Amino acid sequence: MHLRKKGFISKYLYGKNVIDLEEFVVSFAETCNFNCEYCYLKFSKISTKPVIYENIENFATETEELFKNSNKKVFYFNFGETTDSFLTKKHIEVFSKCCLIISQKAKFYSKKCFVELRTKTANIFELQNKEILYDNIKIVYGVTLSPKIIINNFEDKTLNLEERIRALWYAQKIGFLIGLRLEPIIIYPVFDITYQTLVESVFNTIEEYKKIIAQALASIEAKNLHSISISTLRLTKTQFKFLKEKKSKLCFPEMILCSDGKFRYSRPIRVTIYRSLINFIENLSKEFIKKVFLSFEFDYIWDDCNLKIKTLPQISTLTDEI
Amino acid sequence: MNILSEIFNSEKLHLTHSQKIFIKETYEILSIFKKEVDKIFKYNFETSILSSKDRIKNGELFFRKTYQLRYPITSKKLNQLKKFKIFDLEVNLKHVITQKRNIHKHLSTIKNILTTL
User: Fold this and answer.
1) Closest-CA residue to A142 (of A28, A318, A312, A314)
2) Nearest Cβ partner for A195 among B29, B72, B111
3) Any residues with CB less than 8 A from the CB of A280 and at least 6 apart, and which?
4) What are phi and psi of A74, to 5 degrees?
5) Mean of the pLDDT values across residues A32-60?
6) Which among B32, B72, B115 is the nearest to A194, CB-wise?
7) A74: which strand partners?
8) What is the arithmetic mean of pLDDT over A183-193?
9) Does A198 contact B at CB distance below 8 Å?
10) Nearest-CA distance from B31 to chain A in Å?
11) What is the pTM of this model?
12) Mean per-residue pLDDT for A40-53?
């Protein structure tokens, strides 16, 4: 049995100058064994093997403290940052207990809560109907959507795209809200290193992502959509150095070190990708655009995309009242 | 990597330590995507050392060419922005004021250059 010595709940640290989406990370477990090539967890000071923490009485205390000491009415908890939320049955068991705690404490302190469970597995099918649904919290089933070519090359141990979309459909069927996570957007394949070929590679990537957005939105009902996050690949300095030595195709030539210490595609590339996808989503429905946000981006990028800055609790209030 | 040692040891071209690190990193990254990076570096090196007898200028030219290879999109943007003189550091106060006016006047054009491919 593993006991968590540090806190379970932490305010998300976005990095210098990055827009704060006001979410809380719940570290009920750490690491996963999918070994996605871009994952930063391999470089974090955490266990190399998946660990689940069972001293959730500490989580209960922390939740109570959080609710007691805050005037906020809406809270957004992310259970999928330090691990894949649905990695094993044990993961499901522990986060189910955490959801019960959140529900009880939220009821006492009159708070509304949204809990994001993020996964690249099909283990949601293990979940019994209504097992973790409570009247005062909503579950957001967050799925990373990537084109087949990205899954095959960089996320090869995870679920394929069709199954991820089937899992989305099932998640809404059992009463979850849906969070489409288009991150990290990876420019792949890179046709060559000249200006023109890099531009072609970027537009090719945009088209791939448009297809999967259309496919995913077609499989869910609009009222069940919680949010759509968009973000291009970002790599820490250590990751970038490691991947470069490994000759990984993730080390795109036009990656720039940003003020938060992470490498990202250069500004024109990022803005072109974001604008294209935002316009595409807007053309599908004006309602969807209210639920789109940029993850881990700077205010000037939001501005370039003509997107109003909003936090996750603000987006959450757009969904049906709970 | 032979081409890199040829460049770094050349007496016809001067590069600072940090420029050498950047060039080495660029070589490593570009060779992931293109096998013939050696040929491109050699061509750029040879054209740079033939451009003048000044090894400092030759070094700068080679570095600029390498930068354009590594950041083809960004370097194109920087070239487009040069006409606005916002990167000119040797300006007097009067010039700065003029620049500010120009920047304000051309703000949307600058933003467009910065954000489109």
Assistant:
1) A312
2) B72
3) A210, A213
4) -120, 130
5) 87
6) B72
7) A112
8) 96
9) yes
10) 8
11) 0.92
12) 82
Nearest CA in chain A to B70: A253
Cross-chain Cβ contact A198/B72 below 8 Å: yes
Angle of helix B55-70 relative to helix B17-33, nearest 10 degrees, comes to 40
CA distance A203 to B30: 20
- Residues 263 to 292 of A: which have CB under 8 A from any B CB? 266-269, 271-272, 275
Q: What is the pLDDT of residues B70-108, one digit of tens each?
A: 999 999 999 988 877 665 555 555 555 566 666 676 778
Nearest chain A Cα to B34, which residue? A192
Q: Which residue of B has its CA nearest to A190?
A: B33
> Counting runs of H as helices and runs of E as strands, what totals does chain B give?
7, 0
- State residue B90's pLDDT score: 53
DSSP state of B78: H
Report the percent of chain B where pLDDT is more than 90: 66
| Distance of alpha carbon B115 from alpha carbon B18, whole angstroms | 29
CB-CB neighbours of B94 under 10 Å: 8
B3–chain A nearest CA distance, Å: 19
- Which amino acid belongs to residue A242? F
CA-wise closest residue to A70 among A316, A313, A321, A322: A313
Q: If you measure CA to CA, which chain B residue comes closest to A201? A: B117
pLDDT at residue A301, rounded to an integer: 97
ipTM value, please give it: 0.86
**pLDDT for res B96:** 55
Count of positions (residues) in chain A: 322
Q: Do B74 and A268 touch (CB under 8 A)?
A: yes
The residues pairing with A265 across neighbouring beta strands, listed in sequence order, are A255
Strands A225-232 and A177-185: parallel
Around Cβ A173, how many Cβ atoms within 10 Å?
A: 11
pLDDT of residue A310: 94
Query: What is the model's pLDDT at position A133?
Result: 80
Sheet-wide strand order for A74-78: A9-11, A24-26, A74-78, A112-119, A137-144, A177-185, A225-232, A292-294
What is the maximum span of chain B, computed from C-alpha positions, in angstroms? Answer: 50
Nearest chain A Cα distance for residue B52, angstroms = 26
Judge whether A294 is closer than 8 Å to chain B, CB to CB. Answer: no
